[in-house]
Amino acid sequence: xxxxxxxxxxxxxLPYPQASCREIEHHLHALAAxxxxxxxxxxxxxxxxxxxxxxxVNATAALPVxxxxxxxxxxxxxxxxxxxxxxxxxxLPSLETAARPAYVDASGVVTAPYLQHWAWPESDLVGLLxxxxxxxxxxxxxxxxxxxxxxxxxxxxxxxxxxxxxxxxRSQDDDVQTELRALQENKDRLEKELxxxxxxxxxLEKELxxKLLSTGNEIDGVAEPCCEASxxxxxxxxxxxxxxxxxxxxxxxxxQYLKATKDVARAQFLDWPxxxxxxxxxxxxxxxxxxxxTNPY
Length: 297
Description:
Elements: H1 18-34, E1 40-47, E2 53-66, E3 69-77, E4 87-91, H2 113-116, H3 125-139, H4 148-214, H5 223-248, H6 254-269, H7 276-279
Antiparallel strand pairs: 1-2, 2-3, 3-4
């Protein structure tokens, strides 16, 4: 048995994206564990029906179908795999009492229901070969002669299950889209609220400065930058606390949390204003710096 290629992602001329290479390696390892005695995986040239040449992953296995017979299966992972089903060829043992199954044409191409209703990520190579082994074993069963109508009923039942599974996933997709629209509406509402609060804060700051000047309270050139720096630090700390709460509540992915944390740290280090989208996470607060800061000189 040849082990699946663990360096699949390092080949330079494969037609698969990097993310698909990792998924393919996972599927091949699972297939090797399910069929340890007959599994083999190679990189082989393949010619499409339109004449295009490509180097694709070819996985082969021998499926026991009863009475000491094996069905040789060759699975070619196309460029769009795993989102698109693979191309499957099957070589069946020749038995006088068994005709060629309806899901295998004269050239050996397989059109089983599992392939017709392929739905990634639920569908994989192990499930595909398991379904083919079940179909082939039922077809070559010697303990119970199977007629055409009985075989058609089995295929129809499996087809109904696949259709129901596809319908369920479509319903789940609709639910996800509805949730996304609700989240987008909530985001728009919060952005409008942020603009309103920011506008009010600016008005209050202007009014505060006007009142301080009118009452004769002087703010020297050292205390004012100190107050501004303290306000910036408070805004950065508030943003970091809000990011921590969003991450712990599961409303913020880890990658976005790390990026936002880096943005806040950079803004604080370079004395830049905290980005507005990060300020929106924190509850707006008004800091009266004049009462918190003292002139160090």
